[in-house]
Write a structure and sequence with these properties.
By secondary structure, the protein is an alpha/beta fold. The chain is built from 17 helices and 13 strands. Helix 9 links the parallel strand 6 and strand 7.
């Protein structure tokens, strides 16, 4: 379960202007994240920076077959299934006890909990036995903000109480990706005081995602790059596509992403294939080469119907100098100013979304202007280097003597 690996991290000490050995102030950091693929898609900059701050970084995640890629970053790995779709108390308790055993065996200096399930279950585990410092890393509020059933509302109250308890500890720190999520937590009495760092999402490498020239498509292409789940608004986008077809507006919509079977909001592959006609609407599936998507697509679209943290796909498109169409929800509107980096439409409004798509489809100069502003905003605080610097600042403050 705790195989130790002698792997040289890919990050070079020169990248930080000082030797990693001189910068290390921690023995061990335990990173709790739902999935190995999620850690790889969003948190490689975080893991790299932690490898320079700690002698040992251990990632605790569900093993989908990509643990070796995490080990290649210099991290050890422990497999643990957080059962994202479950709200069953007995199952949750088993996961809490399994996580408590990992913490007791590893005895880390810091437990870094990413996303809602690890934060809540990790917070419970930290109430027992070994009590290291804790980093609560919010990537969005998930069910906390969109609960509408009695069971989910109860789970929301319990979750907020656990987060509040964790953040009341002096040895805790909050990482958050937009000010509205912070305001939501504070309204729920989960207030870290001044022990907080605002991050620019997961961070983007502007070299890996360079500004792309106009693809010169005869028919504009809008790309939706996200998990195929209802809260991302993919069904609203398909309604907008139907409206565009009825109006006779030439347009192509490409859907890129997985169905995410572990999520109760996942769209079925049958539904996605039914939407895909191979001409105007195309379900393209999952790709690891998102940069190539932006070589061929003109417009980024994310019609989320509930709040986001800071969508990585949005930042990838922005770094590639693509104009953004998003909805007026937390996270998206934190990055996009209507008419500056992109266009903002009401969530769930397929007609307004169709209007925005048609507007950008017919105005190449507007697309270029919005895309250039989007890239400039990424460079002003949403790069990997900016996020890594924020993480290090937070850790140094967390570990500073009282």
């Amino acid at each position: 379960m705790t195989q130790r690996l002698n792997v040289t991290p890919t990050l070079q000490a020169a990248d930080f202007g000082a030797s990693a050995a001189n910068r290390r102030m921690l023995g061990k950091v335990l990173v709790c994240v739902t999935e190995d693929w999620f850690a790889l898609s969003h948190f490689q900059p975080l893991i790299r920076r932690l490898r320079c701050l700690a002698r040992d970084v251990v990632v605790v995640a569900r093993d989908s077959g990509r643990m070796g890629e995490l080990q290649a970053l210099g991290a050890r790995t422990i497999a643990l299934d957080y059962e994202r779709a479950s709200l069953n108390p007995a199952r949750e308790l088993r996961t809490v006890m399994a996580l408590r055993r990992v913490i007791a065996a590893e005895r880390p200096d810091v437990v870094h909990m990413i996303a809602m399930k690890p934060i809540v279950l990790g917070g419970l585990a930290l109430m027992m036995g070994h009590r290291p410092r804790a980093v609560v890393h919010m990537t969005g509020l998930g069910f906390l903000a969109i609960s509408d059933t009695p069971k989910a509302r109860l789970a929301c109250r319990v979750a907020l109480g656990i987060i509040a308890h964790t953040l009341r500890r002096p040895g805790s720190w909050l990482l958050v990706e937009n000010p509205e999520d912070l305001a939501f937590l504070r309204a729920g009495r989960a207030d870290p005081g001044d022990r907080i760092t605002m991050l620019g999402g997961a961070g983007i490498d502007p070299v890996a995602y360079p500004a792309r020239p106009d693809p010169a498509n005869p028919i504009p292409i809008a790309a939706f790059v996200a998990r195929m789940i209802r809260s991302k608004g993919v069904h609203v986008l398909m309604d907008a596509a139907r409206i565009l077809a009825e109006r006779g507006v030439p347009f192509v919509i490409d859907l890129w992403g997985e169905t995410d079977d572990g999520n109760p909001e996942a769209m079925s592959i049958e539904t996605l294939n039914r939407w895909s006609d191979g001409a105007r609407n195309r379900y393209r599936g999952f790709t690891r080469d998102v940069a190539r998507v932006w070589e061929g697509a003109d417009i980024f679209v994310l019609p989320a119907i509930s709040r986001e943290g800071m969508p990585r796909a949005l930042l990838e498109a922005a770094a590639s100098a693509r104009p953004l169409i998003v909805t007026d929800v937390p996270g998206c509107r934190h990055f996009v100013t209507d008419g500056v980096e992109g266009l903002i439409v009401p969530p769930g409004d397929a007609t307004a979304l169709a209007d925005a798509l048609a507007r950008l489809a017919g105005d190449a100069a507007l697309r270029a202007r919005l895309g250039a502003a989007a890239r400039a905003k990424v460079l002003a605080g949403y790069t990997e280097s900016a996020v890594e610097a924020g993480v290090e600042t937070a850790y140094r403050a967390l570990m500073a003597p009282p």
